[in-house]
From TrEMBL:
Residues of the DNA-binding region: 37-56
Pfam family, any one: TetR_N
Keyword vocabulary terms for this entry: DNA-binding, Transcription, Transcription regulation
Name the record gives this protein: Putative HTH-type transcriptional regulator
InterPro entries reported for this sequence: Homeodomain-like_sf, HTH-type_TetR-like_transc_reg, HTH_TetR, Tet_transcr_reg_TetR-rel_C_sf, TetR_C
Signal sequence bounds: none
Record domain HTH tetR-type: where: 14-74
Taxon lineage: Bacteria, Bacillati, Actinomycetota, Actinomycetes, Kitasatosporales
Single GO MF annotation: transcription cis-regulatory region binding
Superkingdom, natural source: Bacteria
Length: 200
């Protein structure tokens, strides 16, 4: 008699979790954050809504973990900023990629919704910064620290402050939609920032 195998509940749970992530991101992109519901996410993912409530208390938490999952996959494939020896070129490459990501509707709409919810919900906002933003910012810090050690920037520069010269204006323009987000703008941020932190 053939042996009957017990279904792997861990694998099934992982499939369900990924389906929920995909459903949440796509629904927010299609319908907007306000019209996205746990029920809608469950229906799109093909799971019961109680499955979602068992793992997350709100749709905002689902979105946060969906982005963390995406960020984790990116980190596995490319865990550090490029270091070709040309700091300006490396930073321009990364900031241009950031512009592409922030202007991709599939990413921008749910990410903007999550950022806005984090302003209202202090606990979610703290998680957003700690889990999603800070790991990426730390990659910039590491690259700038290496540049400082190599003498490419002023030895008195605080890398964490220097990072904000790069990404702060980019985030401001994106969040408030003051002007278009372009590669040319990203390049100018790198050029201006490097002038300010160049060796004296």
């Amino acid at each position: 008699m053939a042996e009957t195998r017990t279904p792997d509940s861990t694998r099934r749970s992982e499939r369900s979790r990924r389906a929920i992530y995909d459903a949440a991101l796509s629904l927010v992109g299609e319908a907007g954050y306000g019209r996205t519901t746990i029920e809608g996410i469950a229906a799109r993912a093909g799971v019961g809504k109680q499955t979602i409530y068992r793992w997350w208390p709100s749709k905002a938490e689902v979105l946060l973990e969906a982005f963390l999952e995406r960020g984790g996959q990116a980190a596995e494939s490319d865990p550090a900023l490029p270091d070709t020896g040309d700091l300006e070129a490396d930073l321009k490459q990364v900031l241009r990629a950031t512009v592409d990501e922030l202007t991709d509707p599939g990413f921008e709409i749910p990410y903007r919704a999550l950022a806005a919810e984090g302003v209202i919900n202090a606990d979610l906002g703290a998680q957003f910064v700690r889990k999603l933003l800070e790991p990426g910012l730390q990659l910039y810090v590491d690259r700038l620290r290496a540049a400082r050690d190599a003498g490419a920037i002023d030895p008195d520069v605080d890398p964490r402050v220097a990072v904000e010269l790069l990404v702060g204006p980019l985030a401001h323009r994106w969040l408030l939609r003051t002007l278009p987000l372009t590669h040319a703008y990203a390049d100018s941020l790198v050029e201006y920032a490097l002038r300010g932190i160049a060796p004296r």
